[in-house]
């Protein structure tokens, strides 16, 4: 730059280098160098150059270069050549004066320079500048200062300056410059879209105000900081020379011409410009995108920074749309190029046209859309009136439902207040139906979590996508919602009441408020048609309201309002309207045998709710139906209480005529409630209300042979289903009472067969009817329950031999028998009875005169379709005393698979099911099989399948007298153990552990410590005398007996089979006994240690010698031959002596062993077998006179594995040989297993039973023994 003079093209030559300004030395400086300087600074030609030694006003401590030499082709001085590291004295400078003197100006709308406009710098050419934002404030201060225009300011109405298309240069100061010209970067052209403009404080600002339809017409005002003031005629005269109407209109971007309005007679001046500019919001009333319209043709979009609320505030105010709420991005259409972009609006701006703006901008994909408060419209849909219903808000031109999330009472207050319904009273998601997202209300809106307590509802709302997730929409009831009703015999006739804000009032019938018009209004509000008549009645009480007529306005469409009446009021309004309401439950029953045959059920206590209201009939949407509605409905229909059930509905198709039902708290008759007519809204569940009342419940007991006993079934909504599982006494009594059979016989219920599904239920305490059981739940699968009632009776054939033939009696609950008269029995009745008895469905009957005291006073005559003989029963005061005898085919035989134990078999082809099997059933099977009493029954290990399931009342004597059916049995067959199948043994002869044979295998058992009575029974059974208490170990720990589950305790019982009980052994119980006949076996002696060592050493020597002899056999042979030849007599004698001696010793040792006299060894074989032989002889004598039977006390005990009768008496050699065999494998530590004995094994005359387990010390006797 050239520094130090009064203008930027004259001064000392300085260069900015490495962050500081440096001077240039004057050595060898020439004219060509000066030309390069003027050219590079755009300052024209060289006028003068001086090089001198001068103390400058701006000294520098360093020089940039010296000895510069330019060629004239350079564009910048630093391109000229110069030696490196040249030094120049501090005060040797170069001064250059160029021909140009640049001028700074601000060019405004009129093209004249002044104190506002684009910044122009000009010499022969004119330039505009590009300035970075961070430098603009300092730049503006410099401009205003240089032009003496005061301070820079932001105009209340930013000029839209007209760019003259001048070249742009980049502006950037580094510090130390004196003129703006010195900050221009001449090395490159500017790239900014708009050159910088500046407005200084001495510039005049105007605006036009007053015409909302045209921004370019109105009263002229001038800005006198900080306020605007009207321009009067005097002031206008002062400025009009320079500021004509056309200049002012051009400044305001209202065209290039203007005029003072002709009708302006006031002291203030009004102007009309050539252009007309107006503003619209495209989107809807008081919301949408801001557009400016010039001369009714050119449409210009306004873009605004969304953070600038001032723009929205001005637009909402100018459009008469209330307060500004918020901006949003309107992406509903393509973006448009705009000539306007509202940059900012200061607080004193009163119009969007007064805000700063500029040209040639595009909004891109974002539009400046705003929402004003007057766009807020809300409605309550699908409610009783305008003051209650589902909240729907008009949001950005579309109606939307609002989700209940984050909804607060203040939002309800806003809605109710806006509708003229007072404040909010109740809000929730289940007051009215949700409706749907039809074209009428497609949006789903939600309250944002950032919603403040004072924020407008529109500001809190945001759009939410229509998802498939479960949603709950908010509904509101306002305080001024009036729910009118009547108290009377008809839902549309009686004294009038009203529920307001949750409280109930009587409507005053005073002459001032109650008249013909008011009565018509009440009939209409109750949806009861036209008024027939009105009157009043006397009534006392507190809480009164009266009607007051009001003028209709925009916030309320009601001709009447409610206000409190005098508390001393005693006259209540009364009205009679034409309307009517009827309620019914509609249902259908499907004949499962013929799916096409459907008939309407005559049962009126279950089905879909049908309402007929003023001639319009249909169903009710179930979305907001409550349990209280069901309770009122069932009570109104005389059908008890609603039943809670999960059974699939047996629905009929009804149109949804009513959206919801709303009842005042004091109204108990559902007909007197208010019904919201469905206006096309969709039910969320798309079904009408379905109710099952307890009055539709029925019960019956299913067993063709029994009266007042059988499988309990309940009729629920068109289906008979069994009750499942174990029923408590309350449920049983409910069933028995309902079917007229008294009360339950006991608190336990036998289970019946398994079914795919059934019901579980609960009844009220002390219930007397199944209709008091209002909780019926479907259960899958179901074990059907059987109930026995106190009035039980059964037709039985009582012959003692067969269930299918003999005299017929009625057996009652007290087991008393009544003879059945044969009149008027025919083949129909006989065959039905045979079938009910479980016999073949065919039989014959005859009569027989008998002498009986007790006769059944009923006869039997069947019609077609009878399922049970009890369906044919008729009361008969006097019966013919000839008893009925029948003979049915198909007698079934019951047996056990193994005689007196095993699986229960019917005709050897069917198994009985374990499910529902009882001890009573086992008892009947055992006694009828001659196997004494039952002991237990268990679940068999066989696979489940279709088995016969039995259900008994407890009064039967034979199993086939019980009800039975073949059904799927998930628990498998039952196995019964009768006491007649018990057997007993001990693990040793007359002693040892106790074993009991049950359910096909031997099990350990124990005895109760009862003074030896039970133990003596066992010893006697085995012919072993009395129990030997001295040998019994009472101190065994309980842990050794914890798995024993059979206990013998006779305690006065003489038969051992009856002493067995199923229980665990205690600490004092015995699991082993020893009788007097028990002989304790002594253990064999151990072999002497020296004998063992000697034998071992001998064997070791043999192992060593034998291989040596075989290896040296030839040499030994030769040696022996040689010895034989030399000393034959000696060799022979010696070997003979040795051989004789060895044989003698061996013979003596074997003889001693056989006789038990070997040192340290005593053999008991001979003595023990002699004892056994003698005992066996005695036992054979006892066996010959003993009677056969299971567990016979006189039966011979088993012998050791030695056939005495076949072998006879053994001689001594045989005994020795056996004794020798016993010690053949020393050492002998115990007796062979063949010598252990058990006593009391079952005889062969009994049925086959497995004896002992493999690990038990039991020896089965030989057949001959």
User: What is the average of the pLDDT values?
Assistant: 79
Structural class: alpha+beta
Number of helices: 19
> Residue share in helices?
10-25%
Summarize the biggest pleated sheet. Answer: 9 strands, antiparallel
Shape: flat
Give me the count of strands. Answer: 76
Strand content: 25-35%
Describe the secondary-structure layout:
Blueprint: E1 2-4, E2 10-17, E3 20-24, H1 31-40, E4 46-53, E5 63-65, E6 92-98, E7 103-107, E8 116-122, E9 126-130, H2 133-146, E10 168-171, E11 184-189, E12 197-199, E13 206-210, E14 217-224, E15 227-230, H3 233-239, H4 245-251, E16 258-260, E17 270-273, E18 277-284, E19 287-294, E20 298-303, H5 309-318, E21 324-329, E22 337-338, E23 340-344, E24 356-358, E25 361-362, E26 368-372, E27 377-381, E28 388-395, E29 398-402, H6 409-418, E30 424-428, E31 443-447, H7 457-460, E32 461-464, E33 475-478, E34 482-490, E35 493-500, E36 503-507, H8 516-525, E37 531-538, E38 544-549, E39 560-564, E40 571-577, E41 581-586, E42 588-590, E43 598-600, E44 606-613, E45 616-620, H9 627-636, E46 644-645, E47 656-662, E48 674-677, E49 690-692, E50 698-702, E51 706-716, E52 719-722, H10 729-738, E53 751-755, E54 758-762, E55 775-779, E56 782-797, E57 805-812, E58 817-819, H11 827-836, E59 843-849, E60 858-860, E61 873-875, E62 882-888, E63 894-896, E64 901-906, E65 910-911, H12 919-928, E66 934-939, E67 945-951, E68 963-969, ...
Helix pairs in contact: 15-16, 16-19
Biased composition (Acidic residues): 1210-1224, 1253-1265
Domain SRCR: 1-99, 104-201, 206-257, 279-373, 378-479, 483-585, 587-694, 699-790, 795-889, 888-979, 975-1076
Biased composition (Basic and acidic residues): 1149-1167
């Amino acid at each position: 730059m050239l520094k130090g003079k009064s203008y930027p093209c004259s001064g000392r030559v300085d260069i900015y280098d490495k962050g500081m300004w440096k001077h240039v030395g004057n050595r060898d400086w020439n004219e060509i160098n000066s030309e390069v300087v003027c050219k590079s600074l755009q300052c024209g030609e060289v006028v003068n150059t001086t090089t001198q030694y001068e103390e400058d006003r701006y000294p520098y401590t360093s020089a940039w270069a010296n000895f510069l030499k330019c060629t004239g082709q350079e564009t910048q001085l630093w391109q000229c050549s110069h030696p490196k590291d040249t030094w120049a004295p501090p005060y040797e400078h170069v001064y250059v004066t160029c021909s140009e003197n640049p001028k700074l100006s601000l060019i405004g709308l009129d093209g004249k320079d002044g104190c506002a406009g684009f910044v122009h710098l000009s010499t022969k050419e004119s330039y505009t500048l590009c300035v970075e934002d961070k430098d603009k404030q300092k730049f503006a201060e410099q401009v205003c200062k240089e032009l003496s225009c005061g301070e820079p300011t932001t105009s209340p109405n930013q000029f839209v300056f007209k760019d003259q298309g001048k070249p742009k240069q980049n502006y950037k100061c580094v510090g130390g410059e004196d003129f703006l010209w010195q900050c221009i970067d001449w090395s490159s052209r500017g790239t900014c879209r708009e050159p910088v403009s500046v407005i200084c404080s001495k510039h005049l600002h105007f605006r036009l105000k007053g015409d909302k339809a045209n921004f370019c017409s109105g009263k002229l005002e001038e800005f006198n900081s900080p306020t605007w003031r009207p321009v009067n005629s005097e002031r206008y005269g002062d400025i009009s020379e320079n500021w004509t109407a056309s200049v002012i209109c051009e400044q305001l971007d209202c065209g290039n011409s203007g005029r003072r309005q002709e009708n302006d007679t006031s002291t203030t001046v009004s102007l009309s410009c050539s252009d007309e500019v107006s503003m619209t919001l495209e989107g809807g009333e008081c919301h949408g995108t801001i557009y400016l319209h010039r001369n009714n043709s050119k449409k210009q979009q306004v873009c605004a920074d969304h953070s600038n609320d001032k723009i929205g505030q001005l637009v909402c105010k100018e459009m008469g749309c209330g307060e500004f709420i918020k901006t949003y991005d309107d992406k509903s259409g393509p973006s448009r190029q705009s000539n306007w972009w509202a940059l900012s609006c200061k607080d004193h701006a009163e119009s969007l046209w007064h805000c700063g703006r500029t040209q040639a901008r595009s909004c891109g994909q974002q539009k400046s859309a705003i929402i004003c408060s007057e766009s807020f419209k809300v409605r309550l849909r699908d409610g009783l009136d305008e003051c209650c219903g589902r909240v729907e808000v008009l949001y950005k031109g579309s109606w939307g439902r609002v989700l209940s999330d984050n909804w607060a009472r203040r939002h309800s207050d806003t809605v109710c207040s806006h509708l003229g319904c007072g404040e909010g009273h109740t809000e929730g998601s289940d007051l009215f139906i949700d409706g749907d997202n039809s074209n009428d209300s497609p949006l789903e809106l939600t309250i944002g979590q950032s919603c403040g307590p004072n924020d407008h509802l529109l500001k809190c709302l945001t759009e939410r996508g229509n998802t498939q997730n479960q949603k709950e929409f908010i509904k509101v009831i306002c305080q001024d919602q009036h729910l009118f009703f009547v108290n009377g015999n008809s839902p549309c006739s009686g004294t009038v009441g009203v529920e307001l804000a949750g409280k109930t009032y009587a409507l005053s019938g005073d002459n001032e408020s109650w008249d013909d018009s008011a009565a018509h209004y009440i009939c209409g509000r109750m949806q009861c048609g036209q008024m027939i008549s009105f009157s009043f009645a006397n009534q006392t009480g507190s809480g009164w309201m009266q009607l007051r007529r009001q003028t209709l306005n925009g916030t309320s469409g009601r001709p009447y309002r409610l206000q409190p009446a005098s508390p001393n009021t005693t006259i209540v309004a009364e009205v009679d309207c034409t309307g009517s309401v009827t309620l019914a439950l509609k249902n259908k029953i499907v004949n499962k045998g013929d799916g096409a045959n459907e008939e309407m059920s005559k049962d009126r206590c279950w089905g879909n709710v049908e309402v007929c209201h003023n001639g319009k009939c249909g169903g009710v949407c179930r979305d907001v139906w409550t349990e209280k509605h069901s309770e009122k409905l069932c009570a109104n229909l005389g059908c008890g209480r609603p039943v809670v059930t999960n059974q699939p509905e047996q629905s009929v198709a009804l149109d949804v005529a009513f959206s919801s039902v709303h009842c005042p708290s004091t109204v108990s008759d559902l007909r007197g409630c208010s019904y919201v007519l469905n206006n096309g809204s969709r039910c969320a569940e798309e079904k009408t209300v379905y109710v099952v009342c307890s009055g539709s419940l029925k019960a019956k007991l299913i067993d063709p042979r029994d009266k007042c006993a059988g499988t309990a079934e309940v009729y629920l909504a068109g289906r008979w289903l069994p009750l499942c599982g174990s029923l408590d006494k309350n449920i049983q009594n409910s069933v028995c009472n309902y079917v007229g059979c008294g009360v339950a016989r006991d608190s336990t219920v036998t289970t019946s067969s398994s079914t795919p599904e059934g019901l579980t239920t609960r009844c009220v305490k002390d219930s007397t009817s199944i209709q008091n059981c209002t909780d019926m739940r479907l259960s899958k699968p179901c074990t059907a329950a059987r109930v026995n009632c106190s009035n039980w009776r059964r037709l039985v054939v009582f012959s003692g031999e067969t269930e299918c033939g003999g005299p017929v009696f009625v057996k009652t609950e007290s087991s008393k028998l009544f003879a059945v008269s044969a009149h008027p029995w025919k083949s129909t009745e006989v065959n039905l009875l045979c079938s009910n008895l479980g016999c073949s469905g065919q039989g014959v009957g005859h009569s027989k005169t008998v002498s009986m005291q007790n006769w059944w006073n009923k006869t039997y005559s069947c019609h077609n379709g009878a399922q049970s003989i009890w369906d044919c029963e008729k009361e008969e005061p006097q019966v013919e005393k000839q008893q009925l005898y029948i003979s049915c085919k198909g007698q079934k035989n019951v047996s056990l698979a193994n005689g007196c134990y095993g699986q229960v078999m019917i005709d050897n082809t069917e198994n009985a099911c374990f499910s529902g099997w009882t001890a009573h059933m086992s008892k009947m099977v055992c006694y009828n099989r001659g196997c004494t009493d039952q002991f237990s029954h268990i679940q068999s290990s066989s696979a489940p399948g279709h088995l016969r399931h039995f259900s008994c009342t407890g009064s039967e004597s034979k199993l086939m007298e019980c009800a039975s059916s073949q059904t799927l049995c998930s628990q498998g067959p039952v196995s019964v153990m009768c006491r007649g199948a018990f057997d007993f043994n001990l693990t040793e002869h007359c002693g040892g552990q106790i074993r009991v044979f049950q359910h096909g295998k031997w099990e350990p058992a124990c005895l109760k410590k009862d003074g030896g009575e039970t133990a003596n029974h066992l010893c006697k059974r085995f012919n072993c005398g009395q129990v030997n208490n001295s040998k019994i170990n009472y101190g065994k720990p309980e842990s050794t007996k914890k798995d024993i589950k059979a206990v013998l305790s006779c305690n006065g019982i003489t038969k051992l089979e009856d002493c067995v009980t199923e229980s665990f052994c205690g600490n004092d119980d015995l699991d082993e006994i020893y009788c007097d006949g028990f002989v304790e076996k002594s253990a064999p002696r151990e072999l002497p240690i020296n004998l063992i060592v000697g034998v071992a050493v001998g064997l070791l020597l043999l192992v060593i010698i034998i291989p040596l002899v075989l290896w040296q056999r030839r040499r030994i042979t030769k040696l022996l031959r040689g010895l034989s030849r030399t000393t034959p007599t000696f060799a022979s004698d010696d070997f003979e002596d040795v051989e004789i001696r060895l044989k003698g010793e061996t013979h003596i040792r074997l003889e001693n062993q056989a006789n038990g006299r070997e040192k340290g060894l005593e053999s008991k074989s001979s003595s023990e077998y002699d004892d056994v032989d003698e005992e066996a002889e005695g036992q054979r004598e006892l066996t010959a006179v003993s009677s056969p039977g299971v567990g016979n006390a006189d039966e011979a005990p088993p012998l050791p594995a030695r056939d005495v009768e076949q072998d006879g008496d053994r001689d001594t050699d045989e005994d020795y040989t056996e004794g020798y065999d016993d010690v053949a494998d020393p050492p002998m530590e115990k007796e062979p297993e063949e010598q252990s004995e058990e006593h009391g094994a079952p005889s062969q005359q009994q049925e086959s039973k497995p004896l002992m387990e493999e690990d038990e010390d039991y020896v089965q006797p030989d057949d001959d023994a």
